[in-house]
Amino acid sequence: MTTRRTSEQGTSVQKTALRRRKRASSYGVVLMALAALGAVYAVLLAPQSLAQEQEQEQQEPANQSMQVEEGRQLYLNGCSTCHGLDLQGGAGGPSLIGVGASAVVFQVESGRMPLHAGVQQAPRKKPRYSIEEIDALAAYIQANGGGPQLPEGDLTDGDLQLGGALFRTNCASCHNFAGSGGALTYGKYAPELTPASARVVYSAMQHGPESMPRYSDAQLTEEEKKAITRYVRFLAESGDVGGADLGRYGPISEGLVVWVVGITALVGLTLWIGARS
Amino acid sequence: MSLLSKGTDAGAVWVDDRLGSSNFVRRSLNKVFPDHWSFMLGEIALFTFIILLLTGTYLSFFYTPSLTEVVYDGSYVPLKGVTMSQAYASTLDISFDVRGGLIMRQIHHWAALLFMASIVVHLMRVYFTGAFRKPRELNWIIGVALLVLGIAEGFAGYSLPDDLLSGTGARIAYSIALSIPVVGTWTAFLVFGGEYPGVAILDRLYSAHILLLPGLILGLITFHMMMIWYQKHTQFAGPGRTEDNVVGSRLFPTYAAKAGGFFMLVFAVLAALGGLAQINPIWLYGPYDASQVSAGSQPDWYVGFLDGSTRLMPNWEIAGFGYTVPLNVMIPTVVLPGILFTLLALYPFLEARFTGDRDYHNLLDRPRDVPVRTAIGAMSITFYLVLMIAGGNDVIASVFHLDIISMSWVLRVSLFVLPPVAYFVTKRACLALQRSDDELVHHGIESGTIRRLPNGEFVEETVPLPAVYRIALTGVESDRPQLEGATAHGEEGKPKGPGYGDQHVVEGAPERVPGFFRAKRRSGPSDTSAPRPEAAMPELERSGKPAPPEQ
After folding, report:
1. CA angle (B289 as vertex; B328, B150 as ends), nearest 5
2. Where does a domain end: B240, B266, B301?
3. Which of A249, A273, B230, B339 is the most buried (most CB within 10 A)?
4. Would an 8 Å CB–CB cutoff place A117 in contact with chain B?
5. Which of A168, A182, A262 sits opposite B394 (nearest CB)?
6. Which residue of A177, A231, A271 is the best one to mutate when testing the B interface, meaning the one whose CB has the most B CBs within 10 A?
7. Residue A258: closest CA among chain B residues belongs to which residue?
C-alpha cells in the first residue's frame, strides 16, 4: 500500500529532480550562474516542452524509487533519532506521517531541521542538505503518508499587485509590512522573510509551521499563494529607493537614527562652534 | 570691522530717513548674546522649523488631501492598478514621479523628527540650568505649548499620506478620543465628522497641518524669541558676568555669522539624512485598509511614550449601566499625558513655591549646584525613557530575540523602580561633583609636588585655581585672596548655597531660603593659606574653559 502511494504522489518531486538534471546538460552555463542565486528558482523558471515532459514521465518510476530510497537513507541517518525509524515520532520530535513534501522543503531548506537544540522556536540556519538531498527526503516523506506538496512550475508566477494586497492582509500583521519580522508571545517570533527562498515561502503557507496558520488551497488558492510568494521575493530583492533601509522596522529605527545620528551630530557641532567662539 | 560698521551706519541712515528707526536698528545689531554651546540647541529647533516650512511648501504643490478613490497608474509597479485614495496616490507620485519629490519628503520627515528632538534637548538645557526661573516662566510655558503643538503637528503630518501606517495611527487617535467618558463619542464624531474613518478627517488634518498648527507654532516661536530679546539671554557665571549684564558677542556681525553658519550645518545634516537614509517608505506600507495592520506599526518617536504607556497598562475596564469606561486606553493616553504636560508647564511655579525663591535670575545654575532639580529631571527622563522603550517593545523583542511578555513585566516594574533610583543616584552624583569643585576652589589644584616641612611633616603643594575658573565654578568674582573669597562663599549660616549669582542678587531682594532644592554644600576647609607656587594646571580642562569677556 505504501509503495502504491509512492508512485502516485512522489511524482512532482521526482519531476523536479529530473528537470534539474536535464537543464544541467542543456543550459549548463546558465544554470551555473543561477545556481549561485538559488538553484530551485532557476529550475522552476525554465520552460518545459511537451516532448520533454513525456520523456520524463517514461523515466519516472525508476528514478522515483531511487529518489525515495536515497531519501530513506538520508532520513535514517539524519532524522530518525528524533522522528522515529518509521516516521512515527518520539520524545524528540513529532510524527512526520502526512506532513507532506512541502513541510520537508520548508524545514530543511530553511535550515530549521535538523534542530540543533531544544529552543522556543527552531531558528533559521545554513541548510545542512543540498537541494537534491532535500528533494529526496521530501520524496521519501511524501511516499509515506502523503500530504501537501509544492505545485509544479514557477512558484513566483503570480500577480504582484494581488500578492501585495494579500500579503498586507494575511502576512504583515506578524511579519511586518516589509517582511522584516516581528515578535510573538513567549519568545516566539515571526521571522524575517528576506532570506527565505520562493520554495520556503510557498511551503510555509502550505505547511503552517510553528505559530503560523496553515493556508490550504481553499483559503488561498495556488494562484494567490504564488502571488504572495512573488511579492515576498520582490520585497527581498527590490532595493530601497530612499537610501539605507534602517532595517525596515518602521518608525522605531527612524527615531533611533534621529537621536543617535541627527541630534548627536548637531550637538557635536554646537560644541565645535562653541569651542571656536 | 570699521568698514563693516561704516556699511552698517550707511544702511541705518538709509532706513532712518524713511522709517526713523536707526536707533532701533543700531541697538538691535549691537545686541549681545552670550556664548555657550548649549545656547544653540534651541536654534536647531528654529532652523529645522524653517526647513520644514520650505520643504513642506514644496510638498503641498503636489499633495492632494482627498479620500476620493483612484486607480494608481504611476511608476511604482507593485501598486499599479490598485485602487487607493487620491491622498496616497499623490504621495506615491511625490515619491516616484515628482522631480526631487522623494528627497523633499524625506528631508521633511527627518526634519520633523529632528524638530521634536531638538525641542526636547533645548527643554532639557533650559530645565537643568534653571533658565526657566523668574522672570522667564512665561517663556517656559510658551516652550511647553510649542512642544505640544509640535506633537500635534507631527501627528497630523504622519496621517496625511493615508498609507497603512497613517490610517492605523488615525484609528488609534479615534479610539483615544472614544475612551474619554461622557464626551468621548461626541468628540470623536466631531473631529472625524462621523464614524471612523469618515470622509472629513483628511481635509481637516491637512488644514491643521499646513495652516493652523504651523501658524500657531510660527506665532509662538516669534513670541518666544521676542521675549528672549526683551528679557535678554541668560548666561553662565564667569568673569565680568553679573545678574545685570550680558557678556558675549554682538548680533552683528559675530553672532549673525555664527547662527547663519549653524543654519547651514543643520541643513547639511538634514540633507544628508534625507538623501542617505530612507524614512517612512509609504509604498511598502500600501494603501490604508481598515482590515489590515502591520507588525511594527509605531508612531513617530515623540508619540512613542504614549504607545509605551498603553502597552504597559493592565487591561482594566469599568463596565456598568450599559457603558464602558476603558481605563486601559484612557489612563495611558489621556490622563497620563494630561498630568505630565501640566506638571511640565507648571514646574517653574512649583519650584518657586517650594524654594520660596522669588528673585530675578539672569545667571544660570550649573546642574550640580541644584541637586534636587537635577535629580527630578533625571527621574523624569528615566520615566519617559522606560515608556519610550515600552513603545518599541515588539521591535526590540524581535531584533534582540527577547520574550515580549517578560519584557513588558520588566518594564512595568522599571517604570516605578528606576525613576527613584535615578533620583538618588543623580542627587548623590551632584553632591559629589560639588565637593570636587569645592576641593578645587578651596585647596587648589594638586601639583604633585610633596614638600617636607622642617618638623618632618609632608605636605602636598597645591596651585590656586586661576580666577577665570574659580569664578566659573563659584560665581564669586573677587580680587581678594582665595581664602577670603572661599569664606564668603561658604559662610556658615548664610543660605548662599552653591550659589553663584548670590553675590549679585538684585538690590533689596529677600534672602533665599536654604533647603531642599539647593542642598547645602559642605563648607570649605580653612587651611588654604599655605604658599602656592605657580605650576602647570593639568586639571583645568575638566571644568571647561569659560570664554573671556568680550565687552
Report:
1. 60
2. B301
3. A249
4. no
5. A182
6. A177
7. B114
Task: Determine whether the interchain pair B279/A261 forms a contact, defined as Cβ–Cβ distance below 8 Å.
Answer: no
Burial of B23 (0-12, 13-18, 19+ CB in 10 A): exposed
Host domain of residue B526: 431-543
pLDDT at residue B497, rounded to an integer = 36
Grid coordinates standing for A66?
531511487
Split into its structural domains, chain B has a count of 2
What's the confidence (pLDDT) of residue B504?
39
Q: Do B404 and A180 touch (CB under 8 A)?
A: no
CA–CA min distance B550, chain A (Å): 10
Q: Which residues of A touch B299 (CB under 8 A)?
A: 251
State yes or no: ipTM above 0.90.
no
Report DSSP state, residue B244. Answer: T
For chain A, positions 138-197, list CB contacts with chain B under 8 A. Answer: 160-161, 163-165, 168-169, 172-178, 180-187, 189-190
Is the Cβ of B280 closer than 8 Å to some Cβ of chain A? Answer: yes
- Tell me if residue A155 falls in helix, strand or coil: coil
Residue of B nearest to A186 (CA): B403
Phi and psi torsions of A137, nearest 5°: -60, -45
Chain B from 27 to 66: CB within 8 A of any A CB: 35-38, 40-41, 44
* Residue B312 forms part of a structural domain: no
pLDDT at A11 over 90: no
Give the gap in angstroms from C-alpha A179 to the nearest C-alpha of chain B: 9
CATH label of the domain that carries residue B82:
1.20.810.10
Q: Does residue B409 fall inside a structural domain? A: no
Within a domain: residue B495? yes
In the stretch 477-536 of chain B, residues with CB closer than 8 A to chain A read none
Nearest chain A alpha carbon to B280: A250
* Bridge partners of residue B248, in order along the sequence: B34
On the question of a cis peptide bond just before residue A127, with omega within 30 degrees of 0, the verdict is no
Specify which residues B459 forms β-bridges with.
B451
Cβ neighbour number for residue B394 with a 10 Å cutoff? 22
Last residue of a domain, one of B275, B301, B327: B301
| B504 located within any domain | yes
Which grid coordinates belong to B384? 519617559
What are the cell numbers at B288? 490604508
B436 close to A (CB below 8 A): no
Query: What count of other Cβ atoms lies within 10 Å of the Cβ of residue B367?
Result: 22
Amino acid found at A61: P
Q: Which residue of B113, B292, B393 is in closest CB contact with A255?
A: B113
Give contacts of A231 with chain B, Cβ < 8 Å: 78
Cell triple for B16:
532712518
Nearest CB to A244 within list B38, B278, B402? B278
pLDDT tens, per residue, chain B with 551 residues: 566 677 777 776 777 788 777 677 778 888 888 989 999 999 999 999 999 999 999 999 999 999 999 999 999 999 999 999 999 999 999 999 999 999 999 999 999 999 999 999 999 999 999 999 989 999 999 999 999 999 999 999 999 999 999 999 999 999 999 999 989 999 999 999 988 888 889 999 999 999 999 999 999 999 999 999 999 999 998 888 888 888 888 888 888 999 999 999 999 999 999 999 999 999 999 999 988 999 989 999 999 999 999 999 999 999 888 888 899 999 999 999 999 999 999 999 999 999 998 889 999 999 999 999 999 999 999 999 999 999 999 999 988 888 899 999 999 999 999 999 999 999 999 999 999 998 888 888 888 889 999 999 998 888 888 888 888 888 766 544 444 333 333 333 333 334 333 443 333 333 444 456 665 554 444 444 444 443 333 333 333 344 444 44
